[in-house]
């Protein structure tokens, strides 16, 4: 709205605008320009600021005329100069925003020249230059930032009556020193030190002392110079946090001797402060960082003595001490210095009272137990684990510690129980667990480690149980299949070692319980293969390799399950399902066909032996479904080569006939029509069909007779007639058609 109004006023002013119109235009264009700058539209602001300058010049001309008595003398020179000063400062602000450094400098110089007549604007201009310095500092334009900050400081000194004050001057100088420091400390070290020294002279502030020490450290000053700088502010009142930050700075730059001396002098100043323990902690950190572990231990032992003599650390400081102790212990543990790690963990344990229940104490006891285990101190490890169970019984890490002890003691039952508890906690973590440390990946990693430990200790039963729970919770496909394969191999190795007396039937038959177990493993593999298409990391080649491995093992298990027809069928079907994830080459198609034929054969054979009609119908229906799928595969397979001598057509015909006959399928006659039309059908096949047509619950005497007659005709056509076989066929024909 201001932009539009300002432009409209320009159109209305005419060739000889009045003083009032010019003053209104100056005010409107100044406000519009400043508003555009504040909105980040500096380029648009320039238009209106130039307009303001032009109007000021017109007003100034009228003022000169008025001095000769030819114009209205109410126009005051001071007002004109103030407006011009403001416009020039706005132009400088716009130029800085657009990165026009030289233009901004020119505007600033004109403003500085006008300060002689407008001394009250000194503070405004000094702060404006400071803001320019801050803006360029944030953009990492250190050279320009240092220029503006120097200008701010110089302007602040021009008129002490209207100065920004010592605190502001010190603030400007501290930022100027920081700009020199970050620009190039080695090149501008003297300038940075001069600026910070002036700042400290203007106003004593902890930030100034701190920055001076930092500049000296960065510039590689001697220990004497740094000690001298530290001594300067030790005579002034400084906060504890400031002293701590200074000590940390010395620690960061590796000034050991200066830092230690400084830390020794600080506690006396804050002896009555409840936070004095922070200094002690920093002292310990300083000693550890400088490899003075023996002195650090002495300091920690002093803290422990003080803890039990009424000089306890505040809770926050005590927590920080535990972190320091655990961190040092962890470093020794990683270096396999288990005795040293145990000592640092023991320091941490010293701050807990007997009988205290704390989840962190549970973690601590688990770490102590692990160190004892590495040192072959089983009894002490057991004591630590008992303490961990008391303090943190629902932690998966505690259960894992119990598990490790049980495995080392060869207590299979207890180890299995611990694994089961770990599996439950993976599924539903304890509400007290550290969420940053315990997630499902952590749980599965622990189960994986549990299986590895069991195998290393020759405890296959425990390893199997750990792998079972691991397979239930793994999300990564590659890890899951690795676990399942390991599980299958383990169980197979156990079966191989079984005594012959424990097997069913003969030495080639698997135990029924293991068959069920394997089926669960293969079902899990099939389910995950089906779901793996959405996982980018699990490629198609990986999927095919895994499918081949599992289908082949399922096939071998089916072949070995001769004493368990039901499991044999299930393994053949699993092998078929798994093979569907493999490319349909000739070898895979043959395997698929064989799996389905075998499954159908087993279902038909089992159906013959079932007592109830409903069970028979179910098995015959399943067999028919598998035969239909097999026929489709067989059609494709026959296109890949010569299968003239393959008996698959005959088997499929006989199995399908039996299934449909015993299901009383109305399409049975349609099936047989295709048989009568096939001249290559053998007599033996027709004889079997005739037999199946009358095998209960099937009863098809007409089909039986027709099949026998066809078989009889085939026998008669033979060059050498088998009299015995001919008599049998004739007798079967007569029996199939008894006299009324």
Automatic annotation (TrEMBL):
UniProt KW keywords: Meiosis
Q: Does the keyword Coiled coil apply?
A: no
Cell division: present as a keyword of the record? Answer: no
**Protein name as it appears in the record:** Protein ZIP4 homolog
Q: Give the InterPro entries listed for this entry.
A: Spo22/ZIP4/TEX11 (IPR013940), TEX11 (IPR042861), TPR-like_helical_dom_sf (IPR011990), TPR_rpt (IPR019734)
Q: Which Pfam families match?
A: SPO22 (PF08631)
Gene Ontology cellular component?
A: central element
One of the protein's GO biological processes: reciprocal meiotic recombination
């Amino acid at each position: 709205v201001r932009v539009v109004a300002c432009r409209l006023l320009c159109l209305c002013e005419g060739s000889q605008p009045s003083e009032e119109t010019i003053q209104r235009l100056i005010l409107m264009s100044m406000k519009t320009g400043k508003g555009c700058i504040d909105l980040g539209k500096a380029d648009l602001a320039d238009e209106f600021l130039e307009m303001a300058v032009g109007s000021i010049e017109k007003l100034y001309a009228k003022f000169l005329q008025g001095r000769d008595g030819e114009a209205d003398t109410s126009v005051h020179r001071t007002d004109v100069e103030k407006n011009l000063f403001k416009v020039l400062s706005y132009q400088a602000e716009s130029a800085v925003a657009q990165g026009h450094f030289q233009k901004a400098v020119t505007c600033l110089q004109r403003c500085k020249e006008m300060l002689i007549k407008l001394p009250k604007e000194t503070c405004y201009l000094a702060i404006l230059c400071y803001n320019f310095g801050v803006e360029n500092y944030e953009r990492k334009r250190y050279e320009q930032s240092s220029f503006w900050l120097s200008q701010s400081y110089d302007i602040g000194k021009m008129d002490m009556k209207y100065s920004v004050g010592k605190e502001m001057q010190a603030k400007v100088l501290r930022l100027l020193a920081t700009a020199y420091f970050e620009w190039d400390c080695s090149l501008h070290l003297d300038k940075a030190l001069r600026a910070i020294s002036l700042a400290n002279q203007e106003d004593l502030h902890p930030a100034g002392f701190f920055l001076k020490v930092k500049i000296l450290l960065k510039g590689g000053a001697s220990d004497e110079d740094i000690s001298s700088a530290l001594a300067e502010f030790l005579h002034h009142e400084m906060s504890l946090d400031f002293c701590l930050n200074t000590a940390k700075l010395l620690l960061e730059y590796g000034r050991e001797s200066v830092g230690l001396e400084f830390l020794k002098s600080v506690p006396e100043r804050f002896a009555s402060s409840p936070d004095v323990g922070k200094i002690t902690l920093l002292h310990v950190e300083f000693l550890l960082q400088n490899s003075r572990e023996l002195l650090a231990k002495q300091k920690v032992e002093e803290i422990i003595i003080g803890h039990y003599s009424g000089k306890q650390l505040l809770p926050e400081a005590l927590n920080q001490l535990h972190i320091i102790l655990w961190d040092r212990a962890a470093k020794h543990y990683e270096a396999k210095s288990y005795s040293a790690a145990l000592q640092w963990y023991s320091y941490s344990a010293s701050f807990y009272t007997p009988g205290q229940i704390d989840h962190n104490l549970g973690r601590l006891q688990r770490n102590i137990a692990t160190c004892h285990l590495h040192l072959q101190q089983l009894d002490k490890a057991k004591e630590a684990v008992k303490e961990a169970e008391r303090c943190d019984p629902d932690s998966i890490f505690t259960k894992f510690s119990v598990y490790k002890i049980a495995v080392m003691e060869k207590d299979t039952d207890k180890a299995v129980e611990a694994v089961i508890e770990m599996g439950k906690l993976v599924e539903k973590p304890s509400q007290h667990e550290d969420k940053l440390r315990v997630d499902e990946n952590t749980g599965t990693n622990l189960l994986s480690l549990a299986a590895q430990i069991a195998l290393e200790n020759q405890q296959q039963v425990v390893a199997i149980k750990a792998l079972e729970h691991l397979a239930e919770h793994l999300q990564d496909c590659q890890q899951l299949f690795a676990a399942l394969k390991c599980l299958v191999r383990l169980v197979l190795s156990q079966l191989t070692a079984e005594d012959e007396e424990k097997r069913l039937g003969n030495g080639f038959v698997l135990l029924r319980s293991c068959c069920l177990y394997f089926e669960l493993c293969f079902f899990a593999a099939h389910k995950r293969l089906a779901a793996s298409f959405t996982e980018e990391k699990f490629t198609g080649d990986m999927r095919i390799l895994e499918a081949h491995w599992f289908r082949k093992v399922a096939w071998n298990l089916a072949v070995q399950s001769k004493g368990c027809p039901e499991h044999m069928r299930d393994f053949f079907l699993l092998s078929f399902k798994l093979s569907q994830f493999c490319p349909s080459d000739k070898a895979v198609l043959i395997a698929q066909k064989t799996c389905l034929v075998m499954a159908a054969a087993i279902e038909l054979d089992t159906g013959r032996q079932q007592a109830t009609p409903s069970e028979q119908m179910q098995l015959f229906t399943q067999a028919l479904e598998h035969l239909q799928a097999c026929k489709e595969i067989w059609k494709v397979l026959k296109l890949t080569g010569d299968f003239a001598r393959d008996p698959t057509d005959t088997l499929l015909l006989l199995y399908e006939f039996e299934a449909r006959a015993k299901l009383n399928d109305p399409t049975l006659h349609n099936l047989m029509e295709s048989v009568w039309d096939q001249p290559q059908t053998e007599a033996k096949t027709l004889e079997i069909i005739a037999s199946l047509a009358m095998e209960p619950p099937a009863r098809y005497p007409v089909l039986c007779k027709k099949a026998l007659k066809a078989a009889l005709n085939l026998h008669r056509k033979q060059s050498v007639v088998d009299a015995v076989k001919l008599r049998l066929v004739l007798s079967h024909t007569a029996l199939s058609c008894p006299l009324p």
